[in-house]
Amino acid sequence: MVTVNLGILHYVLDHVYGAFMHRTKISPPFFSGGWGGKRLDMLERMIKQLFPEVEGQNWPPSLIQPIWRTVWETKTACLREGTFRTPCNEQLIGALPPESHHGRVAFLSPKCVPPQKMACVVHLAGTGDHTFERRLRLGGPLLKENIATMVLESPFYGQRRPVLQRGAKLLCVSDLLLLGRATIEETRGLLHWLESEAGFGKMGVCGLSMGGVHAAMVGSLHPTPIATLPFLSPHSAVVAFCEGILKHATAWEALREELAAKEAALTLEEVRERLRNVLSLTDVTRFPIPKNPNAVIFVAATDDGYIPKHSVLELQKAWPGSEVRWVTGGHVSSFLLHNEAHSAWCQTLQQSVCFPRSEKVRIAEELLDLRSVFMSRGLQSSAGRCNRDETAP
After folding, report:
1. Disulfide engineering: 155 pairs with which of 75, 100, 208, 274, CB 3.0-4.6 Å?
2. Pairwise CA distance, residues 145 & 140, whole Å
């Protein structure tokens, strides 16, 4: 009798999917337009200047005032869509493509429930998520728990995608940094609107893969404690583009040719090192610990071909008090094929935002009691603390 290691199958599925998507030349690779020239230099300076400011937590969010229209409503729920001008400063707006100057957001909320008795979670986009629908489907089951869902359309995605960009394949390295910085600014502004204008007292932010990286950054920078849930996310874009499967979807020759025109000829490894240095600016472990790290839960896959385990554990180590929950599967299977992963996400969101923060200790004890339940559903809980030598399953 032949036994099959399911973990290997999940890992292989990630690589098969990655080979089909990124090696068949169905679409151009990431960064086929090069580094981004002066825009990249400006962004590197701006982000490097950000970190001393971050330490003092004195980067207040800008208030966004969306213009809303109702898409549909029933007796129990309402879906609205809003538009707003990005709150980025003029220097960033000048670097963004014109299509990304205005943001779009969907807002799914229960009816007949005052905001003070609801929670709201902002869902951020993963790579290639150009529409609202997928994240709204995740928010649907939360309505019965009185949890509203706000979905942000990322810059460079959907209706905000530049004309020359094909799909999710960003043209320049600078575009990745621009996307991240603008997403952080806009999300923080939306959370500020939820609190100061809409009257929500309990809020959270979550995202898949790239969206999880941005969610972690937002959770770190928000001036008050919020629930933060990165799902299948690395600690840095370096992991995705220089170590994981997306390294096969990167236009290394285009990047090398641009550098060679300015400097001496470089080896491919030197080009990779240059990209590592640039993308190290996205390292979440450089950001300050969130106001309440006990409200941070990382959901990771045991056999992820895109995100290695060590990357998730670096996040956990950097933020003492945070927790890692392991879903059995790979990157693709956990999200596209694994209904239990979706259930885990919804369950974690409910636990993160629905309880008063004074009850966190009691909740942590209850979560430990529920470990056997999670195990039976394919979800393993690693209630991580820095002073415990935890390893992924």
Report:
1. 100
2. 10
